[in-house]
């Protein structure tokens, strides 16, 4: 188990690296995280939902993602409530207070332990990931994902600490010393992550950390910026609030409070012709060549906020001026005529008018659609997936130039506007080429060399590069010795 001194210390990335390293070394690894809290999720081949990080780790293992890899997923609806997804299907919304009470926890504990047992019967080793800090002693009795899960799996625990945020000595020492004695003995090593600068400067610090904690430091992993791995947490979006750029196709992704599945735009962002940035600046939204309204976990709440902060009006003005507007999932719903929630699925807003750019009406439903999708784009086969609540219907009085979504081509279109429930549709090269050709400001941009590597091959290469990076800075032989291998 890779456990953390806190959130966002890099557990998921280190777990992904170890998944690929174990695979390279001839083992059959699989990832596991008992409970994940994230809005960035993924639809498995059998139409269920797991956290994006475990889907990425499954790719690193060259496995198809499965709900046993992440049996419990929490998708926050607000500061106080969350949707609970168990074994890939939602079982309802709960307040944080109710969820973390002891009552009913044993049923969830049974489910996550059963998922681990099924996974462990098929794969070895299991690369487990904890959640947040392992030292939240106030949650110890209700914890499903950290040390209680390590006890069930009889797992060795490696503590991951983020040196970039400071306080690494106190974080490691406190995380270890706040454990019960039996759990403390499970912690067999420390990985210091996100180091900047000359790594030799931490040689004495490494020895001090080992002396203070009584646990070996297995490695100090430098920060990297040249390896592309899908992010799960929206923390990373703060670094992508760039501005308009000359000579590029400027793509403005509207920054929503409850944004989800922002990895939809990673492939487009890597295109050399594109300057993609996240913003709620109305002037930039109006000037961008392409405006994307992304997915959200709270469509009505974000729609209300868009009207309040002026972004809704800026999107409409951009469209009126001939700029391309795209809506994905919740963004698709917001671009329609109305969004209705008669059964209070999302909250206490019963209905709102949409932006009126697409002739659809959406009604929120308790049932959730999760599935992988094959679709046609200009006659070429493409892939993606759907994760959404709500059903959208085409308005019978739509203008003649409007095009309704079909099973083969699941897009609703009007001039300069397109909406779809499909996540990942911008990962498909035919879609990107068509989109950029229609808005590219100059011939040079259209002729830019974007390479011919497929997305799958690109990702596979990145996993190998990540494994090489981590292998160079972690004592893998020591890790194998801990795991009981020669």
**Approximately how much beta-strand content do the residues carry?**
25-35%
The main sheet comes to: 6 strands, mixed
Shape: globular
Number of strands: 24
Number of helices: 17
Rounded radius of gyration (Å): 23 Å
Helix fraction bin: 25-40%
CATH superfamily of the largest domain: P-loop containing nucleotide triphosphate hydrolases
CATH topology of the largest domain: the name is: Rossmann fold
CATH class of the largest domain: Alpha Beta
Mean pLDDT: 91
Q: Provide the domain count.
A: 2
CATH architecture of the largest domain: 3-Layer(aba) Sandwich
Strand order of the largest sheet: 15-13-16-18-24-23
Stretches where pLDDT is under 50 for at least 5 consecutive residues are 442-450
Distance between the termini: 20 Å
Structural class: alpha/beta
Model description:
The chain is of the alpha/beta class. It has two domains: 2-228 and 460-483, Rossmann fold; 248-441, Rossmann fold (3-Layer(aba) Sandwich). It is built from 17 helices and 24 strands. A six-stranded mixed beta sheet has the order 15-13-16-18-24-23. Helix 1 packs parallel to helix 2 and helix 1 (11-24) crosses helix 16 (455-473). The longest helix is centred in the C-terminal third of the chain and has 19 residues, at 455-473. Mean pLDDT is 91; it is low at 442-450.
């Amino acid at each position: 188990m890779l456990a953390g001194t806190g959130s966002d210390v890099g557990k998921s990335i280190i777990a992904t690296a170890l998944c690929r390293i174990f695979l390279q070394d001839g083992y059959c690894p699989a990832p596991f995280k008992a409970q994940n809290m994230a809005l960035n999720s993924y639809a498995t081949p059998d139409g269920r939902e797991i956290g994006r990080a475990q889907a990425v780790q499954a790719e690193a293992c060259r496995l198809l993602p499965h709900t046993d890899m992440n049996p419990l997923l929490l998708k926050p609806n607000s500061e106080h409530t969350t949707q609970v997804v168990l074994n890939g299907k939602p079982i309802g919304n709960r307040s944080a207070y109710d969820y973390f009470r002891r009552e009913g926890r044993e049923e969830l504990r049974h489910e996550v332990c059963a998922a681990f047992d099924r996974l462990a019967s098929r794969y070895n080793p299991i690369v487990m990931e904890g959640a947040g800090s392992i030292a939240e002693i106030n949650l110890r009795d209700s914890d499903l994902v950290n040390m209680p899960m390590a006890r069930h799996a009889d797992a060795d625990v490696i503590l991951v600490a983020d040196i970039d945020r400071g306080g690494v000595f106190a974080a490691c020492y406190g995380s270890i010393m706040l454990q019960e004695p039996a759990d403390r003995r499970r912690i067999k090593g420390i990985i210091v992550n996100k180091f900047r600068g000359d790594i030799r400067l931490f040689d004495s610090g490494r020895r001090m950390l080992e002396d203070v904690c009584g646990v070996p430091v297995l490695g100090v992993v430098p920060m990297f910026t040249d390896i592309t791995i899908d992010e799960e947490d929206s923390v990373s979006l703060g670094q992508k609030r760039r501005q308009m750029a000359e000579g590029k196709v400027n793509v403005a992704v509207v920054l929503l409070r409850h944004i989800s599945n922002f990895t939809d735009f990673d492939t487009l962002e890597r295109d050399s012709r594109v300057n993609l940035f996240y913003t709620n600046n109305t002037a930039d939204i109006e000037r961008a060549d392409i405006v994307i309204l992304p997915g959200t976990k709270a469509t009505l709440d974000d729609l209300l906020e868009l009207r309040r902060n002026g972004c809704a009006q800026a999107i409409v003005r951009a469209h009126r001026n001939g700029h391309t507007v795209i809506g994905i999932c919740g963004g698709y719903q917001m671009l329609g005529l109305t969004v209705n929630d008669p059964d209070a699925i999302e909250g206490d807003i019963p209905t709102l008018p949409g932006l009126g750019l697409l002739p659809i009406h959406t009604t929120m439903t308790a049932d959730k659609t999760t599935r992988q999708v094959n679709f046609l784009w200009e006659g070429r086969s493409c892939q993606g997936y759907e994760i959404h609540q709500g059903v959208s219907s085409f308005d019978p009085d739509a203008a003649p130039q409007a095009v309704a979504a079909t099973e083969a081509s699941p897009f609703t279109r009007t001039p300069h506007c397109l909406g779809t429930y499909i996540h990942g549709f911008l990962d498909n090269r035919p879609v990107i080429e068509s989109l950029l050709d229609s808005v590219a400001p100059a011939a040079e941009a259209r002729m830019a060399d974007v390479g011919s590597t497929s997305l799958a091959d690109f990702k596979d290469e990145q996993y190998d590069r990540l494994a090489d990076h981590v292998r160079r800075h972690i004592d893998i032989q020591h890790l194998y010795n801990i795991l009981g291998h020669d």
